[in-house]
Amino acid sequence: MFENILIYFVVIPLVMLGLLALCRDIKQIRAVAVVGSLGLIALSVYLLVDYLGLRAAGNEAPMLYTGSWVWFEPLNIHLAVGVDGISIAMLLLSSIIVFAGSFASWEIKQPKEFFLWLILLSTGVFGFFISIDMFTMFMFYEVALIPMYLLIGVWGSGRKNYSAMKLTLMLMGGSAFLMLGLIGIYYHSAPEGGQLTWNLLEIVDNASIPHGWQSFLFPMTFVGFGVLGAMFPFHTWSPDGHASAPTAVSMLHAGVLMKLGGYGCFRVAIYTMPQAAHELSWIFLILTGISVVYGAFCACVKTDLKYINAYSSVSHCGLVLFAILMLNETAMTGAIMQMLSHGLMTALFFALIGMIYGRTHTREITEMGGMMQIMPYLSVCYVIAGMASLGLPGLSGFVAEMTIFVGSFKAGMADYLAGAGSLRLVFTLIACCSIVITAVYILRVVGKLLFGPVHDDHHRQLTDASWWERLSTVTLIVCVAGIGCFPNFFNTLINFTFKPAIFSVLGMN
Amino acid sequence: MDYSQFLIMKQEIALLVVFLLVFLYDTFMPRSAQKGLPVCTSVLMLLLTVAGCLDCCLCSTDNQVAFGGMYETSAIISAIKNILNIGVVIVLIQSIKWANGEFMIMRRGEFYELLLVTLFGMYLMISARHFLVFVIGLECASLPLAAMVAFDKNRYESHEAAVKYILTAVFSSAIFMMGLSFVYGVAGSLYFANIYTAIYASPSVMLVMAVAFVIAGIGFKLSLVPFHLWTADVYQGAPTSVTSYLSVISKGATAFAFLVVMAQVFGSLYTIVWEWMLYALIILTITIGNLFAIRQRNMKRFLAFSSISQAGYIMLGIIAYNTLGVAAMMFYILVYIFSNLGAFGVIGAIENACGKVSMDDYRGLYKTNPRLAFTMMLAMFSLAGIPPFAGFFSKFFIFTGALEGGSVAIYVLVLIALINTIVSLYYYLLVVKAMFISEEECVILPFKSACSERLGMWIALFGIIFLGLLSPVYSTLIDMASVSQFGMYFLN
């Protein structure tokens, strides 16, 4: 079991948990967090290089590094792992954000408990991305959800009790639908008399879920994951949750956890039930289209920095689901790029907001101004994050959104020309408007917060970023710019393995 | 008469031996040695449990019938008895401090004797294949419990609880026997096997009434809604050790006996009569239990309503009516024993130390007693079904069992149950919130809990953490269920 490299993505966090439990002072805790997350980054970079090497050598299997160990034999539940380019991209993203998040919570109170819960959360995240067995996947998914309650409840700010409860219950509500969907998939995972399985690859191979069941199970699974992907109308946990959460938790949650939703929709719902996805995608296309535009509009009227960013996350994550539902290769590639891009960019945003809030003790943009004069470093970073968010070429947002809209437009035109209605086309156009709205709210914040006169004289004594804050932000900015400047690299990484999945979907067309 | 038949009843006989030893100890040991009774009983029960588990794992017990078909045992039956034993051992360990209290000096022995007698009754209920034996077991398991509920004789609530308990117990027995008389009228026999054949050959309308009465009678014991009204008051009034015994052991045993009766007596009426009865009962039980639990402030009342809704989940294993369902139900009972006893262990420790049982008193508990708060939190997470704790696995398996070959109706039922887990998560999190998040000064001062209490909590914690992750437990149960006598009664 331990010869499989993927297992270490779960083993390292577990070891970190054990060490954290033994730690006596804050220095040891920081050391464990930093060394552990560096280890995770090293592991995912190694995995990336090795993976590309294997692919270049002509390995065409849908998943690499697969391993499967029996867990509950009577139900055929395995601890099955395997990754493709998408999972590797997600693993890389998660390890970077855990690293940046550890630095962002350098001076948190009750550090031991905080890091224990944070690392438990990331154990769930990593476990989720390496699993290809639906049961283990679901278990890790729920492991990632529950620490949020305590992280927000104990270390949060504002209406934290309300937000923590709302977030936990809504996400668990999603996973209730999900559990039903997954068990349903399991019972139809093999043809009559065959061995039922939880393994996604085998389910796709068998392709035996009857059409009628697909139309019932697809919405269950898609909604289940969609709740975490902040799909309208199930997005309401997101603004409250992100606004109340402490910095590192907002980063991890918006940066990684919301990606679990998009990844799950793609990997489980669409991968295993392409027919239903093809037929029912219009319902969810409308819903996600609404979240793209509605989220952006909401961000325009909010004055609390975290709320603005949370609504912008709703809009951007909506775009991920929106692109996945286009069922077309370009758009899906864009969706994965958007996950990466949004994950890094929003983590940067939340980190900066946390740093600003830690100094000014307010997040109201009306009470702040002229930050560029007071803390130039943080302000410049904020501008970079903003530019990435509104899609400036050279940064990650542009690449992702461009790919998504080209892909969606292609899908829309294909539909239109085939006489299959113009819904996709119309919604692509509507979703395109979100770019403009994004520019509105980003520039509004940048203008009010960073430029103009200093609003409050007390702010003049504030200091600029400390070294750990610089380290945290620089890491993220480098990655954001990296995706923006070398999109083709990520394109190759994702495209390598997109083909089989796409074929199974488009085979229905 | 062939006396070797008694060997088949070895579990009952072993329990009887323990009972007699405890009785002799209580009667003949000098005053000075009386303090050793609780520990002695716990050790004896522990030995019994270990021996039972070894026997269960090492020797494969075939289906054996004794006394002309009145008594039956099999691998799965001895497994459920062992599961109950494990629970009893934890209850006994947790009760040591309470039983050694000032106030218990004169009545310590009775508590243990009554407890063992009720356990004996539950054994009989589970193994009975004749309604006479079943009723003896049922009464034996109910009536002494009333005396145990009334154990705090200086507390008014304890009396009230005992009166409520005994009246509902008697009333439910009466209803149950009313149902039996209908059954006897139709079948002309009280042997399970004979009734099954008679019903199979000629189902009659009267059986609908009979099944309804039987379900109602057992429903009282299981505290299914709408037969649950006694539960909260009794749980609140009884001493904590008795409450924990009532909530896990009594419930687990009755649930299994219920399965036996429904499968081996009324099995052929599954689709036409009792599936939809149980369907409605499950929805009511889970939903109402959950909704009422939200408003409770007393921890014991709170767990009473939580245990009502948990009983609804256990019933999913019966309505599944297949091998997976039976195994999942037993696994659920096992996990529920550990999780609930973890919670009761904390409640009991706090009650013994400072007499607080209100949820409001638990505010800020993490600051004063972090370990207790942590144990409580894991127990709550396990009850709510959060991975990686055992409760998640048991919930997942019971849903998987229920959905095997399930119709759309069953999917709807499971969906309702799943949505209810969210409601239950809400109130379990209320406890976590009180302990961890609330910033008020805690009224419970730091204290050191007794050795026995800590041991009890450690065992419960061990179960909560490892039962789910270690797959052999569940796999063994499935193996046992698949060779059990139930197989021939299931439709598929």
Q: How would you explain this protein's 3D organization?
A:
The complex is a heterodimer of chains A (509) and B (492). By secondary structure, chain A is mostly helical. Chain A has one domain (5-506). Chain A is built from 20 helices and two strands. In chain A, strands 1-2 form a two-stranded antiparallel ribbon. In chain A, a hairpin with a 4-residue loop joins strand 1 and strand 2. Chain A starts with 7 loop residues before the first helix and ends with a helix. The mean pLDDT of chain A is 87. By secondary structure, chain B is mainly α. Chain B has one domain. At the A-B interface, helix 5, helix 6 and helix 7 of A face helix 17, helix 18 and helix 20 of B.
Instruction: Report the largest inter-chain contact.
Output: A-B, 33 and 34 residues
Q: Return Rg of chain A in Å.
A: 22 Å
Envelope shape of chain B: globular
Q: Specify the biggest β-sheet of chain B.
A: 2 strands, antiparallel
Strand content of chain A: under 5%
**Spatial separation of the terminal alpha carbons of chain B:** 39 Å
- CA-based shape of chain A: globular
For the secondary structure, the number of strands of chain A is: 2
Task: Tell me the quaternary state.
Answer: heterodimer
How many structural domains are formed by the residues of chain B?
A: 1
Report the β-strand fraction of chain B as a percent range.
Answer: under 5%
In short:
Chain A is mainly alpha-helical and 509 residues long. Chain A is 75% helix and 3% strand.
Q: What would the keywords be for this entry?
A:
heterodimer, A: 509 residues, mainly alpha, two-stranded antiparallel sheet, 20 helices, B: 492 residues, two-stranded antiparallel ribbon, 76% helix, 1% strand, globular
